[in-house]
Amino acid sequence: MADKKYETPMLDELEKGPWPSFVKEIKKSTDISPACQDLLGVLEVSYEDKKNHWKHGGIVGVMGYGGGIIGRYSDMPEQFPEVAHFHTIRVNMPTGWFYTSDALRTLCDIWDRHGSGLTNMHGSTGDVIFLGTTTDELEPTFKDLTAAGFDLGGSGSCVRTPSACVGQARCEWACYDTLAACNDITQTYQDELHRPAFPYKFKFKFSGCPNDCVASIARSDLAIIGTWKDEIQQDDAAVAEYAASGLDIQKDVCGHCPSKCMEWDGQKLRISNRECVHCMHCINVMPKALRPGKEKGAAILIGAKAPIVQGALLASVLIPFVPAEELLDTIKELTSRIWDFWGEYGKNRERIGELIQRVGMANFLDAIGLDPVPEMVSAPRDNPYVYFKAEDKI
Amino acid sequence: MADKKYETPMLDELEKGPWPSFVKEIKKSTDISPACQDLLGVLEVSYEDKKNHWKHGGIVGVMGYGGGIIGRYSDMPEQFPEVAHFHTIRVNMPTGWFYTSDALRTLCDIWDRHGSGLTNMHGSTGDVIFLGTTTDELEPTFKDLTAAGFDLGGSGSCVRTPSACVGQARCEWACYDTLAACNDITQTYQDELHRPAFPYKFKFKFSGCPNDCVASIARSDLAIIGTWKDEIQQDDAAVAEYAASGLDIQKDVCGHCPSKCMEWDGQKLRISNRECVHCMHCINVMPKALRPGKEKGAAILIGAKAPIVQGALLASVLIPFVPAEELLDTIKELTSRIWDFWGEYGKNRERIGELIQRVGMANFLDAIGLDPVPEMVSAPRDNPYVYFKAEDKI
Amino acid sequence: MATAPVKRITDIGPPSYENFLHPVIKKNYGLWKYHENVAPGILCHVSETGDRIYTVRAGSPRLLSTHTIRLFAALADKYCDGFLRFTSRNNVEFLLDKKENIEPLKQDLHAAGFPVGGTNNAISNIVHTQGWVHCHSSATDASGIVKCVMDALYDHFTEEKLPAKMRIALACCLNMCGAVHCSDIAILGIHRKPPQVNNDTINKICEIPNVIASCPTGAIRTATVNGKPSVEVVEEQCMYCGNCYTVCPAMPLNDPANDGISIWVGGKVSNARSEPRFSKLAIPFLPNNPPRWPEVVNAVVNIVNVYVENARKHERMGEWIDRIGWPRFFDLTGIEFTRYHIDDFKNAGLTYARSAHIRY
Amino acid sequence: MATAPVKRITDIGPPSYENFLHPVIKKNYGLWKYHENVAPGILCHVSETGDRIYTVRAGSPRLLSTHTIRLFAALADKYCDGFLRFTSRNNVEFLLDKKENIEPLKQDLHAAGFPVGGTNNAISNIVHTQGWVHCHSSATDASGIVKCVMDALYDHFTEEKLPAKMRIALACCLNMCGAVHCSDIAILGIHRKPPQVNNDTINKICEIPNVIASCPTGAIRTATVNGKPSVEVVEEQCMYCGNCYTVCPAMPLNDPANDGISIWVGGKVSNARSEPRFSKLAIPFLPNNPPRWPEVVNAVVNIVNVYVENARKHERMGEWIDRIGWPRFFDLTGIEFTRYHIDDFKNAGLTYARSAHIRY
Ligand code: SRM
Ligand code: SRM
Ligand code: SRM
Ligand code: SRM
Ligand code: SF4
Ligand code: SF4
Ligand code: SF4
Ligand code: SF4
Ligand code: SF4
Ligand code: SF4
Ligand code: SF4
Ligand code: SF4
After folding, report:
1. Quick one: average pLDDT of D307-326?
2. Is D309 helix (H, G, I), strand (E, B) or coil?
3. Cα(C187)–Cα(C173) distance, rounded to whole angstroms?
4. Calpha distance D157→A18 (Å, rounded)
5. Contacting residues for D1 by C-beta, under 8 A, at least 6 apart
């Protein structure tokens, strides 16, 4: 650790306590870059002032890319010259956040050479965040990254870095290969990822089952959620073992089944698979006894987003089920139709979810050439304000 | 029955079949008034044309009243002169639709003298509907009605005829005296009922318990729904009898309890009354064993309405519980504050429910001087778009 | 010498219900302890005092001649000491203190063509409205369809063979006079053409700004036609609600070829088990086909049958659909799911299925 | 002689994950059969082949120095043949094929200050954002509050003593980078003053029509100030969302006295049991009180404690509140219910309690 440059009594308080301390991390990095000292300095000021000391980001980037860098300037550049520029670089993580120690060290080496030595592992979208460098260092960092086989993630109005749950790599419930799908989509849309050309951002997230461990339904414009179509695979002996070991199957399993489609008579568990909504609960509770069915695939949902502008949205069902083998083709075909429509009709800063809200799902379906199915709605309309189309009238 | 005046082959089809026939009723009445012949005639034309033959109602009424009469004119007056005028008179029914045979005959006598002899027993709001007379007969009918102790119901932008379920007169579940309350409110607001002075209509409905047998929650601006605050009265011996007689208490009673607050171990039924939402289901299924608690009263809900203009609304909770003894005073106090606000801020044809939607519940509560309580919402807001008031900021 | 004018009686309100209560009811007012379903259409309420009152409920077409009302009055005199009432669904209820009077009353009613039933898990009377009999707004008839549907469902009125209560209602236009919007099955008259503006009269008989303001979707704008101030309707923005017509007679929207019926399901009013809720669109359009409306009757009967076959005890229509899901409802009933089922009014976004809870 | 320019490498995307998979994972890819919760922070996945892979999950502050990343790399070399990953909630997971390596790894991690835990029914890491460390939009810090809250909830990370999973998240402004809006407990930075328009620069650096269009509530209108085109904000219509600031730097809305924190509860993402749902407002405002934010920490700890004491097994926060009702939630937590809890945005009407299902 380099010598202390500023008094940071408030930040020092955050070195205390059992949870690992980000302040310690910043302090540790002061030997990598002088920017870390100034970051501590300006952050202490923020802690005193109760406000941030950053200016609205300017447009900085690497040659030929429109995204991947978040420009950031201090509003106290004279006092903290080392963070006068303090841009972040979003590095597209390997799908599923898998690394070898070598790969990690490679990233560290690059960042120690060109930046603050501070990172986020990872950003909320999933990227490796290189936290803080100057404009001059952007291009050299990029060069080293690509040479090492890494590339930038997304920012701005483009495809954002897609992410996937651990999936079949380490999870018994993955109903399709989330890692392969996510990686394929990431590679397929490299141009759209690096060169913002959309009305706003577009996020893909891939979860292998309805537990949705990458929160795709809450945070992605296109959420691919694994599921199955046939019967839950059931091992009666293992069910009996759970019961014998004290699990109250009636209460803890059947009692929480949202579709009330399970019956337990003390001996035999009966699932009305026809009514099962594929919530995962029973499987979660008895992983040795129950497993997703064999006819695997995914549901595709559309339009999740945070509150800005017109209010937050969860994703809604677009295609209730696509068999695993057809998944990638379907996603790509669908995506191109969605982007065509969005590109033409989307307003500036209008996410696809908000556009659908604005034009209505039925019109959206017409535009992308999908037939309406009841799975798309929680219930049919309750208001009688129906716009009948001319062709349906006399 | 008077001689047939028109061929009505289509209507004749509606004399067939087991359900009592309204066509027979009209035909029966042809001996009372020639209007019934012309009504059959014009209705047959409607059946041929597939559209009604009535003109938009004009303003007709009795002296000093603004409501109670629905003006109606035929659009084929030359062909059907007897229904050229065919106004309805809304007669305020006795609360709870209770009659003696004499009272009914009194009404029949009046109507045979002055109108078509056709009625609706009753209109959707609850009135006795005298169906069809001429402008000239309105005042004489009114005179005879009041002489016999009857008065008109509401129409136009006024208090509409309040209605109540049978309540304590014949129902073991009534948590307050719906008939007394409804009758009192009807009498108290005679002026507001007969002389439209509001932005739009205002309906009161009184149900003795959450079964809501007058559909108050769907159809009234102020819905008074009986309920109780303490524990469900439980007769264990009677519960055992139900069980013995074959009722599956687990499945049929506990299994449908929306708050999952009942437990049945085969011997004893245990209700966590603290969590009970007072839905009535268990009581409905076991009326001999379970009864509403002893601390009785009502919840007051506001703002139900049909779709026009901004979409249908169910009523929403305004006061979660008022003890039975305080109910009438509370309703009146509340009503006067509501009307003050509505009178001042309500737009033309804006029901109170829509006004609340427009200004927001919190502002409405401020205006009528009620404190917000969590019972008013199904859940607190999920969007972070909070308008903080100046007094809560620094 | 002029006679003094008779003082005009006004604002007296209805006569007090207390005048019309059966003595057993008066005595046991507020003291009822429980009730029994004696038979379809027959209830017995038992008081804390041990007294009993029997109710015999009969179906009615609601549109009643005074002849029929007098008939009911006579039956009440014969069997009930003259006491009777009507229900919130327009049935007539005879109130008896003598059990032995039930059967003869039933027989007399039957002879006069009035079925006894509608209690407990039966289909009670259809709440309905004026239709072509009296209302200028109507997109369909009311009494006629009700008659046809109840003819077809007659046995469900006189017997109790449903899993739960079933409430059917009909309204002849979107004003929805009656709790149509919260019914197990709702039959709703609809228009499908925008209003035809009467350019000659509108300026004389209506306030044009009011007409414009009346439209929930802002489909109406000012226009000058033949030099006269008028309005025009943007066809794509009109969803035929008729509110402009309610406000202004110069905006009629009847159109026999396009008027018709839509069917809605799964609503309820009671708080029993699940919360009250609106009915949801099942069939966007069926033609008006008087006098027997076979398309509507068949549609309703089909839905009732599928429900009866599939729902569990105590499940109202909407609760049953909750359990099986809408896709299966459409599947089982054979009703086509169309773009019109997807909401596109104000809160449409909240009806999209925002979870991976999907049945296959 | 000039050297040929090195071809610039672009659009290569990330290196393939396949390069980074542990051999046991590669072999058993897609063949996992079930898993066991060995201990807090330790999972064992068992394959159809009988192979096992162990996961040791350690908490991380997310803001990591390369020093710490190198430390993780070294531990991975020591115990895991160099294989590790990070989770979607920013924990680090060491992937071991040797059970006997678990304990020593745990001890090394512990010695370095990194707790093992966060699996199963524990409180996992707090998903969070940049805060004062890097973002110009922030109404509060992120890492600082996370540190304080996790210090207080430390035992809930290292032990599994909750009725179900609990996900806490923090976002420093309404942009909500992270799934804050669907968390069991969400900590959200908020502004409470309208933007202060910089009348000198706005016309130069922003497109005024864009600024006006950016406002979800239409609170911004054109104005001329000192002869220059600018905008003004109608204070009553502004709900401090900051969208105008995102679009235009001349609309800053930081205000130390009024910026602060709101707390939201009961959201979830998974489809397990109940559908995914948004978090709902619990506490409208708590002050920014660095460095330890005691008000926020106490509020969160209180909610966690009340939940732990009252919820049933398998009930996530929101599911527990479903059962007991919001009135009781406010009652048990001692949180005041205010006018701000009642929604008044677009779909507000749908949040009013439209039934007589009431708990007393
Ligand atoms: C770095 C990161 C937060 C973090 O600490 O992890 C981040 C940081 C910013 N986000 Fe974000 N967002 C980040 C993930 C998210 C997510 C989560 C996700 O992607 O799963 C969301 C919510 C999901 C969504 O997209 O709806 C998110 C929703 C927003 C929004 C609101 C967008 C909306 O449609 O509602 C904005 C505002 C904007 O786009 O103008 C925003 C804008 C920003 C900006 C660029 C600020 C701005 O107004 O220009 C922030 C730059 C901060 C800085 O100085 O570094 N950020 N942002 C995350 C990206 C790292 C990465 O690439 O991995
Ligand atoms: C007679 C009756 C239907 C029936 O056959 O029973 C009726 C008939 C009319 N109603 Fe109604 N409404 C009748 C009960 C209702 C109800 C049910 C209720 O009160 O419980 C409703 C739904 C509940 C509600 O108020 O929201 C109802 C909602 C409407 C509406 C829509 C109001 C709204 O706010 O959405 C209109 C349109 C209007 O007010 O302009 C309306 C308008 C009308 C008019 C006056 C037509 C018009 O546009 O001017 C109808 C006159 C028909 C005629 O020619 O006789 N009628 N109307 C009912 C009154 C009889 C009575 O007094 O007992
Ligand atoms: C007579 C009447 C009240 C009145 O003042 O006129 C009435 C009377 C009774 N109702 Fe009702 N209800 C009456 C209209 C209603 C309505 C309103 C409506 O239909 O428009 C409802 C709400 C309907 C809805 O939810 O859509 C209604 C929902 C109930 C319920 C709840 C049913 C459910 O499970 O959802 C019960 C409880 C039960 O039946 O188990 C109930 C129970 C009863 C009981 C058993 C109460 C009692 O202990 O006396 C009465 C005999 C019911 C029966 O038919 O078996 N009553 N009841 C109404 C008869 C209408 C008719 O002729 O059929
Ligand atoms: C490693 C990770 C995926 C990844 O690719 O990184 C993961 C891995 C597993 N999840 Fe998850 N989940 C992971 C994030 C999530 C998320 C996303 C989030 O938290 O933002 C969710 C949705 C959270 C929500 O609903 O708000 C999530 C909801 C679940 C659930 C459903 C829990 C519930 O009852 O609602 C299960 C099933 C269970 O635990 O019973 C589950 C189960 C699992 C299992 C048991 C799956 C398996 O068989 O391997 C894994 C071990 C879980 C554990 O922590 O005990 N995982 N899991 C993520 C670890 C995050 C962390 O560091 O804590
Ligand atoms: S989303 Fe499903 S498949 Fe993916 S890690 Fe979570 S539990 Fe496993
Ligand atoms: S997955 Fe969910 S819905 Fe299906 S049976 Fe299991 S608990 Fe029930
Ligand atoms: S609403 Fe309740 S009290 Fe009134 S009649 Fe119906 S069941 Fe009885
Ligand atoms: S009244 Fe309803 S909520 Fe209360 S215990 Fe009975 S069934 Fe449950
Ligand atoms: S529903 Fe419409 S058409 Fe029918 S009576 Fe009411 S206003 Fe008239
Ligand atoms: S019918 Fe309704 S939507 Fe159409 S113009 Fe008239 S008011 Fe507007
Ligand atoms: S939540 Fe807001 S303040 Fe925090 S990083 Fe995202 S944009 Fe910046
Ligand atoms: S902060 Fe939001 S609401 Fe306020 S003026 Fe800016 S965009 Fe509009």
Report:
1. 97
2. helix
3. 10
4. 11
5. none
Cis check: omega of the bond before B122, within 30 degrees of 0: yes
Tokens at residue C273, please?
A: 């088990």
Residue A265 has which token pair? 């008579």
The answer to whether residues C290 and B81 touch, using CB atoms and an 8 Å cutoff, is no
Full DSSP string of B107-165: HHHHHHHHS-SEEEE--TTSPEEEEEE-GGGHHHHHHHHHHTT--B---SSSEEEEEE-
The CA-based dihedral angle spanning residues A129, A134, A136, A138, taken in that order and rounded to the nearest 10 degrees: 10
Is there a contact between A26 and D65 (Cβ–Cβ < 8 Å)?
A: yes
Structure tokens, A192: 């759209």
- On average, the pLDDT of chain C sits at 96
Which residues of D are less than 8 Å from A177 in CB distance?
30
Backbone angles phi, psi at C130, to 5 degrees: -85, -45
Residue B2 predicted with pLDDT over 90: no
Map residue D180 onto helix, strand or coil.
helix
Looking at chain B, which runs of residues are DSSP E strands? 54-55, 69-70, 73-74, 87-91, 98-100, 118-121, 128-133, 159-164, 202-207, 222-228, 233-234, 262-264, 269-271, 290-291, 296-302, 316-323
Q: What percent of chain D has pLDDT over 70?
A: 98
Binned at pLDDT 50, 70 and 90, residue C5 comes out as low
User: Model-level pTM greater than 0.95?
Assistant: yes
Residues A331 and A222 sit within 8 Å (Cβ to Cβ)? yes
Q: Which residues contact C312 (CB under 8 A, 6 or more apart)?
A: C163, C320, C323
Q: What is the pLDDT of residue A1?
A: 54
The separation between the first and the last C-alpha atoms of chain C, rounded to the nearest angstrom, is: 90
Rounded-to-integer distance, Cα A38 and Cα A33, Å: 10
pLDDT in tens, D163-173: 999 999 999 99
Percent of chain B at pLDDT above 90? 96
Q: CB of C45 within 8 A of CB of C53? A: yes
Token pair, residue D41, equals 């922070």
**Helix axis angle, D294-310 relative to D143-158, nearest 10°?**
30
| Nearest Cα residue to D357 out of B225, B75, C143 | B225
Residue of chain C whose Cα is closest to the Cα of B116: C65
**E-strand stretches of chain D:** 32-39, 42-47, 52-58, 63-65, 83-86, 92-96, 168-171, 185-190, 220-225, 228-233, 260-265, 280-287
CB-neighbour burial class of residue A6 (10 A; exposed 0-12, middle 13-18, buried 19+): middle
The span from the CA of C203 to the CA of C226, in Å, is: 12
Ligand 7, from B98, B205, B211: best to mutate by most atoms within 8 Å of Cβ?
A: B211
Ligand 1 within 6 A of CB of A90: yes
Distance (Å) from the C-alpha of residue B353 to the closest C-alpha of chain C? 15
A51·D256 Cβ contact <8 A:
yes
Instruction: Return d(Cα C145, Cα A337) in angstroms, integer.
Output: 45
Q: Are C57 and C69 a contacting pair, CB within 8 Å?
A: no
- Per-residue confidence band for B394, with pLDDT thresholds at 50, 70 and 90: confident
Band (pLDDT 50/70/90 cuts) for residue C306 is very high
Three-class DSSP category at C154: helix
Q: Is the CB of C125 under 6 A from ligand 3?
A: yes
Q: Name the DSSP letter for residue A313.
A: B
Determine the Cα–Cα distance for residues A281 and A278; give it in Å rounded to an integer.
8
* Closest protein CA for atom 2 of ligand 5: A209
Residue having the nearest C-alpha atom to atom 39 of ligand 3: C120
How far is residue D180's CA from residue D159's CA, in Å, rounded to a whole number? 23
**What's the rounded mean pLDDT across residues B125-134?**
97
> If you average pLDDT over residues C161-182, what whole number do you get?
94
Q: Which partners does chain B have (≥3 C-beta pairs < 8 Å)?
A: A, C, D
Residue for token pair 């009431």? D358
